[in-house]
Amino acid sequence: SNFGIRESLKRLGISEVNSGVTTGTQWFECKGNITSSYSPIDDSEIAKVVNADINDYEKVLDTAQEAFKQWKKVPAPARGEVVRQIGNALREAKEDLGKLVSFEMGKIYQEGLGEVQEMIDICDFAVGLSRQLYGFTMHSERPDHKMMDQYHPLGVVGVISAFNFPVAVWAWNAMIAAVCGDVVIWKPSSKVPLCALACQNIIQKVLKDNDVPEGVFNLVVAKSSVMGDNFIEDKRVPLISVTGSTAIGKRVAEKVGARLGRTIAELGGNNAIIVAPSADLDMAIPGIVFGSVGTAGQRCTSTRRLIIHEDIYDDVKNRLLNAYAQVEKKIGNPLDPSTLVGPVIDKDAVKIYKTALAEVKKAGGQVVFGDKVLKGNYVLPSFCEVENHWQIVQDESFVPVLYIMKYNTLDQAIAMHNDVPQGLSSSIFTMNMREAQTFLSTVGSDCGIANVNIGTSGAEIGGAFGGEKETGGGRESGSDSWKTYMRRQTNTINYGTDLPLAQGIKFDL
Ligand code: NAD
């Protein structure tokens, strides 16, 4: 039943009642309360998890700190070799884990598989990186002196992840952190704890085979009262990487900032696409529809706003109507291969969908398509005509509701585009080189991700991922994001027989 999910759960080591805490290969007998994980498909209980209490948390922290002392001394390419094997373990478990992601989070199976592929890709990236943790060398102003940068492991890295990418966000952080010589404590979203347990089970054999110290890859499933402030205020955790809403991110950044710790904040988006008069609509429409209804509108990079040139506005609107009508026929069980849109995560999300559409109507907007709860956690993706400055349009509603509006000049479109508090992902569809380059220029998009002729969602791991303004400013995954996971040191070495001072200062004794 349900496309073999029970067999997958078994292979992933998920039982009826599970410990929610491990330091790598050992699962704890936890002392916290017991919570259940439910599938958004039909709200059925999948399994139970015994949460950590504060003593469990302390034990994990101690083990992690001890492990760091050993792990930081393992050569980086040898750490990379462990990550290479983790990548292979993930390849073997791809179908089972992809299915669990789909079952517990609600995204379609293809997207579940895509998420696991992203984990595999980041493992490959991190393996290569393990031989490329480069610093610069500099020419000193002093004779017989040499200067250089070095990057050293940082310590215990806390990873707080959101429900919508229940496995990939951990991998983006943990695999980079691991080759950097850090140890990771993962606190997953309590909406999707089983995905986290499964990941730990998948990597266990690799950790054992390679004698990786207990405490390098830790998982703590816990209530916010245990893993909230205690975690983010903990001076023993020099870096917290938080993925979630802007509200949570602000809290984490404040608490971590107060102790001068480091944060990587990956928060909400309000992503827009500009559709210019020259746009190739045969490309733009699928890009827009995937971006707005894919993952039932629950990606941080989901397309929330469309800014359409007035000359093609009616054409785009009609094509969208047509496409949304096609999507309507393919809403259902996300494990069914013919489904395009699954459920939203829970009843609260259904409420957010209803509220957003009610707000649009209250502000004088027009619902062009949608505005219907189908059953349970299934809603009809919707799009509406709105004005950019309305509060509901300025906020991120984490559901499949798309806002469309008109523009006249590119300057006006870019101004509307940037006039929101968030700054994650953005794109323009145009065949006009001047428009494309302007969008990417200093007077163009103010987002961390800006694309031309592709949509806002579906970033590749090779680039640095993250956004500006209320999206938090953090960067993770590819490019040089790894630098945040390490401590930087500038060295000056004197190999001469004199002691000249910098800036030519004389200090004669
Ligand atoms: P959320 O903010 O409700 O939860 C995020 C995480 O924070 C969860 O693990 C949650 O348990 C934890 N948390 C809650 N209270 C806490 C506290 N007091 N102290 C420490 N941790 C606490 O977000 P969500 O609903 O799971 O995810 C959706 C949000 O995440 C959206 O806003 C989306 O845009 C954002 N997101 C951003 C990115 C990105 O890379 N920018 C990626 C995915 C999701």
From TrEMBL:
Q: Which InterPro entries match?
A: Ald_DH/histidinol_DH (IPR016161), Ald_DH_C (IPR016163), Ald_DH_CS_GLU (IPR029510), Ald_DH_N (IPR016162), Aldehyde_DH_dom (IPR015590), ALDH7A1-like (IPR044638)
Q: Which Gene3D superfamilies match?
A: Aldehyde Dehydrogenase, Chain A, domain 1, Aldehyde Dehydrogenase, Chain A, domain 2
* TM regions (residue ranges): none
Under Gene Ontology molecular function, one entry of this record is: aldehyde dehydrogenase (NAD+) activity
Provide the Aldehyde dehydrogenase domain boundaries: 31-490
CDD domains in the record, alphabetically?
A: ALDH_F7_AASADH (cd07130)
Keywords per UniProt: Coiled coil, NAD, Oxidoreductase
Keyword Nucleus belongs to the record:
no
Q: What is its EC number?
A: 1.2.1.3
Give one Pfam family.
Aldedh
Query: Which residues, by range, are in coiled-coil regions?
Result: 47-74
Name the residues annotated as catalytic in the UniProt entry. 266
> How is the subunit organization of this protein annotated in UniProt?
Homotetramer.
Task: State the similarity comment.
Answer: Belongs to the aldehyde dehydrogenase family.
Query: Can you name this protein?
Result: aldehyde dehydrogenase (NAD(+))
Q: In which organism is this protein found?
A: Ancylomarina subtilis
